Amino acid sequence: MPVSEALERLLAAAKPFQAVQDIALIDARGQYLASAVRARVDVPAFDNAAVDGVALRYADLDEPGLTLPMHLRVAAGDPPATLMPGQVARIFTGAPVPAGADTVIMQEDCEIADGRVRLPGQETVHAGDNIRPAGQDARRDETVMERGERLTPQSVGLIASVGEARVTINAPRILVLTTGDELQPPEEMPLPGKIYDSNGPQLEQLLIQSGFPNVLREHLPDDPELIRNALTRYLTDPQQRPDVIISTGGVSVGEEDHLRAVLESHGKLDFWRLAIKPGKPFTFGEVEGLPFFGLPGNPSAVLVCYLMLVLPTLRRCCGQENVLPQPVSLPVKFSIGKAGKRQEYLRVRCTPGHQSLVLEKHPNQSSGMLSSAVWADGLAVVPVGEEVFPGDELDYFSFADLLNG
């Protein structure tokens, strides 16, 4: 199955998360809004000065060199004042523009001394200069953030500016299952025939970094009865029941892939062979109505399948429309002489070239390696059936854009 078709199917099956939570705005950064945010007030709430300077009526400006006394001084936080015709006011950045004034002249363009100001003429000033009008950033009752948008530090600041201290966010609990008697946790001493589990920690951190902090993680042995007991516990305990299940390994067609059989007894799974490299075996379905993603066992395949298939689907469940960032087309410094039958996601790094950035490929693209993904800063996409030569352009996704979109 082509990657594009797999993603299309996943997005079509995505259902809105029912698990939502009202939390303090300050705790919501990086998560996804479950409902739109509307402004409680105009921002700014009043016309205010954009610079330190002099407030006046544009019509009162005369020939250059007019000198007038400044009887009024307005600082940020002062109550609104009124300016009579023919008067000027000393004003500071953020201060409310006095009623009657329609222009602020920057102090560098005036001569201010001893309570008086020498003004420029109309030919160098425009009516309305240096005034931030009320409602310039947001109008009361206007939607400032839509459902599904991710909360960045900037958007947290915007929501605070419109007077909202709490937001409703998507709060799915995601269960990560790793399987295999060969795996052991990294804190243990190495044992013969064992390998350390990297997929569990990697997936947990990928989820957290991409905006899903509520993660449960458990390793399951290759024992159908123990797998069944663990799954029953998660599905029947309201305190642990997940909203999404993601597994690595154990859902293929091998004799030791017991997880698949246990899961199918609780729902329906669809086993896909994807035209993707790294990766190929991918399982998607429902377990008691919960979406289930079965990822390959190799760690780089887990990384690629999560970024290109699972994360976009989770974002669609949150209400996002644009679930993948736009790739950048960049020239490459390497060649691939044999056209592949699967769409390949190369671990690459952007480096300065003669005229633009160019992509450099890590020399080892094994799906079992994670050191190449640490070296890289993104993925270059080689379409099915294409050879690549130095100077050719490939679509490039940075890890930062994929995780923070």
From TrEMBL:
<dbReference type="InterPro" id="IPR005110">
    <property type="entry name" value="MoeA_linker/N"/>
</dbReference>
<keyword id="KW-0501">Molybdenum cofactor biosynthesis</keyword>
<keyword id="KW-0500">Molybdenum</keyword>
<keyword id="KW-0808">Transferase</keyword>
<dbReference type="Pfam" id="PF03454">
    <property type="entry name" value="MoeA_C"/>
</dbReference>
<dbReference type="Pfam" id="PF00994">
    <property type="entry name" value="MoCF_biosynth"/>
</dbReference>
<dbReference type="InterPro" id="IPR036425">
    <property type="entry name" value="MoaB/Mog-like_dom_sf"/>
</dbReference>
<protein>
    <recommendedName>
        <fullName>Molybdopterin molybdenumtransferase</fullName>
        <ecNumber>2.10.1.1</ecNumber>
    </recommendedName>
</protein>
<dbReference type="InterPro" id="IPR008284">
    <property type="entry name" value="MoCF_biosynth_CS"/>
</dbReference>
<keyword id="KW-0460">Magnesium</keyword>
<dbReference type="GO" id="GO:0046872">
    <property type="term" value="F:metal ion binding"/>
</dbReference>
<dbReference type="InterPro" id="IPR001453">
    <property type="entry name" value="MoaB/Mog_dom"/>
</dbReference>
<comment type="similarity">
    <text>Belongs to the MoeA family.</text>
</comment>
<dbReference type="InterPro" id="IPR036688">
    <property type="entry name" value="MoeA_C_domain_IV_sf"/>
</dbReference>
<dbReference type="GO" id="GO:0061599">
    <property type="term" value="F:molybdopterin molybdotransferase activity"/>
</dbReference>
<keyword id="KW-0479">Metal-binding</keyword>
<dbReference type="GO" id="GO:0006777">
    <property type="term" value="P:Mo-molybdopterin cofactor biosynthetic process"/>
</dbReference>
<comment type="function">
    <text>Catalyzes the insertion of molybdate into adenylated molybdopterin with the concomitant release of AMP.</text>
</comment>
<dbReference type="InterPro" id="IPR036135">
    <property type="entry name" value="MoeA_linker/N_sf"/>
</dbReference>
<dbReference type="Pfam" id="PF03453">
    <property type="entry name" value="MoeA_N"/>
</dbReference>
<dbReference type="GO" id="GO:0005829">
    <property type="term" value="C:cytosol"/>
</dbReference>
<dbReference type="InterPro" id="IPR005111">
    <property type="entry name" value="MoeA_C_domain_IV"/>
</dbReference>
<comment type="pathway">
    <text>Cofactor biosynthesis; molybdopterin biosynthesis.</text>
</comment>
<dbReference type="InterPro" id="IPR038987">
    <property type="entry name" value="MoeA-like"/>
</dbReference>
<feature type="domain" description="MoaB/Mog">
    <location>
        <begin position="175"/>
        <end position="316"/>
    </location>
</feature>
